[in-house]
Write a structure and sequence with these properties.
The structure is a single chain. By secondary structure, this protein is mainly alpha-helical. It has a domain at 73-158. The protein is built from five helices and two strands. It has helices at 19-33, 41-48, 52-91, 95-114, 136-157, and strands spanning 126-128, 133-135. The longest helix has 40 residues, at 52-91.
């Protein structure tokens, strides 16, 4: 059973969790936070009444499991994420949202490449979002230009 499928008991105190339950909760916290780097191992050690070393081992076990899962369907997941963020980027209400989405996607793809789970993709990917057809790079440039223009407009209003 994978940690993502483990049910975290509500009737137990965190320091009474089994290793699987604890790792499932840590994984849930990582997902909510968006990155394992944002979680304090010291605070987690206190929460579970463990050593920091044990919490670090939990993080390693979670990472190992996630790598196995990602390796199985990295291209499928990347495709879904890619389509989601390209759609969001082209329809984003703010340019900051669009830029964050594209940066996230780029970071995800670079990480998959670095761990050997994904090959580099073509340099130019065409996006068809209705009346316009453009490359991802062109969309990103357009977002940056719109953001620059918005900043200039805000300065003029002041």
């Amino acid at each position: 059973m994978t940690y993502i499928n483990v049910i975290i008991p509500k009737d137990k105190k965190p320091n009474e969790y089994t290793a699987q339950e604890r790792r499932a909760e840590i994984l849930k916290l990582i997902i909510q936070a968006g990155s394992p780097k944002t979680l304090s191992r010291t605070e987690l050690a206190e929460r579970y009444s463990l050593s920091i070393s044990q919490v670090s081992q939990d993080f390693k076990a979670i990472a190992k499991e996630c790598e196995k899962l990602i390796g199985k369907d990295a291209k499928y997941r990347t495709s879904i994420i890619y389509e989601k963020y390209l759609g969001m980027a082209s329809k984003a209400k703010t340019l900051i949202e669009a830029e964050k989405g594209l940066k996230l996607l780029d970071g995800w793809n670079n990480w998959l490449f670095n761990i050997g789970k994904q090959k580099k993709v073509a340099e130019k990917i065409i996006i068809d979002d209705g009346p316009k057809r453009r490359s991802a790079a062109e969309l990103y440039e357009e977002i940056l230009e719109r953001r620059k223009k918005e900043k200039e407009d805000r300065k003029k209003k002041k």
